[in-house]
Structures are given as C-alpha cells and as structure tokens.
C-alpha cells in the first residue's frame, strides 16, 4: 500500500488534487490507516494515472466522471463479464474519445504547419547568414 505522498510522486498530482478528486467522486475513497491516513493500492495508482491521461487529453472533470463511471470496463470484460452489459458505457466512451481525437488531430495539423514554416524560416536564415 502507498501513502498519498508516494502516489503524488508517481502520478504528478498534488495531494490536494487527489483529495479533491475523492471529494467530487472522480476517485473512490481509499483505504485508511487507523490514524486516518489514506492508503492506495497499485490498482488505485493505475486508475489515477488513467485519470491523468484523460485530463491531459483535455477532458473536463465532468467528462472524466462520466468516462470512468463504471470503472475499468475493459478489465471487467477480460475477467468474463458480458460486454453487452457495458454497451451504453462503451458508446459514451467512444463518443468522448472520438471528439478529443478529432481535436488532437486538428492540433497536430496546425503544429505540422507551424513546424514547416519554422523550418523554412530557419533554412532561409541559414542561407542568408552564409552569404554574409
């Protein structure tokens, strides 16, 4: 079991953020010591890292809450649960990820244009500085 400090080191989130995610229901309440200190399992850390990735995609906390509502669906299906049970969840997750994938691809195209322009400028500057 890991302390909140150890989890913050592994995930990059602050203790405040972990407690806030717990408060709003994005993160389930962790186990506690007799003194009340939070204890996290490796599974909890994996889940928190998933939350971090979803946040980096640009999902709002509301979307993350919706996305994670039924927990790790892929793991549940691998363990033998009927995928049909998760059809609404899978549809919602597909919708959310498709939206953000389209936005990321648009950003990549924009960045590709900026990179090409920067390379052209650099090439021009190199040529000009060689002429001097």
Automatic annotation (TrEMBL):
This is DNA-binding transcriptional MerR regulator. InterPro entries: DNA-bd_dom_put_sf, MerR-type_HTH_dom, MerR_fam. Residues 1-70 form the HTH merR-type domain. Gene3D superfamilies: 1.10.1660.10. GO terms for molecular function: DNA binding. It comes from Paenibacillus hunanensis. It holds the Pfam family MerR_1. Keywords: DNA-binding. It comes from the Bacteria. The keyword Translocase does not apply. PROSITE patterns: HTH_MERR_2 (PS50937).
